[in-house]
Design brief:
It is a single chain. With 174 residues, this protein is of the alpha+beta class. The protein has a single domain (4-24, 37-171), classed as Immunoglobulin-like, CATH 2.60.40. The chain has three helices and ten strands. It has helices spanning 4-21, 74-82, 134-137; strands spanning 37-43, 48-58, 61-71, 88-93, 104-111, 117-119, 122-133, 144-154, 160-165, 169-171. Strands 1, 2, 3, 4, 5, 6, 7, 8, 9 and 10 form a ten-stranded antiparallel β-sheet that branches. A hairpin with a 4-residue loop joins strand 1 and strand 2 (48-58). The two termini are 21 Å apart. Bound molecules: calcium ion (3 copies). Residues 138, 140, 142, 144, 172-174 line the site of one calcium ion (CA).
Amino acid sequence: MHNPVLRARSLVALFAALAAVAVAAPRASADTPASSGRDACNYDGWSFYACLHLDYKGYGWYNASTVLHRNMSTEYARALIACGGNFKASLWGRDEDDDHSQDDFIRNLVLTPGWPQATYNGLDVRFYTLDIAGSQLDEDDGTDELFVRMTYRDCNSGLITQSYDTDDMVGLFG
Ligand SMILES: [Ca+2]
Ligand SMILES: [Ca+2]
Ligand SMILES: [Ca+2]
């Protein structure tokens, strides 16, 4: 079983490459076929990326981890973390492209130990959750669309809550 922290470390390299070249990145290469992972990254090209990684653990069970990076100065990120941040993440099934009221809540994720971090180019936050049954990811008849919403409170700008969604991970779960 992958340690979430080790998983996150492999994601560091992946997302550094993603940010550098701004193209669809290959999935983390450390996976064996038996635990091959998939990534769904939402990258706006200049200000943030938000990625969901899903690992199949066998026998119908999955682990999930996510990364949020937001460009900002190191000092801005440090101040934001110092005053709380209220970092949260939740896994959803998406049902309508433009109407989130139809989305299905699946579960919350927890902060990965060691994050959030203020880095040289911004804010990095990571979350994970273990042992999700495939039946929980089966949010529709037929194809399922899964994403994670990550939020934090920016006390630098009047406690505004910032919200970022990963790309949809599309598949047949169950
Ligand atoms: Ca759906
Ligand atoms: Ca649904
Ligand atoms: Ca389904």
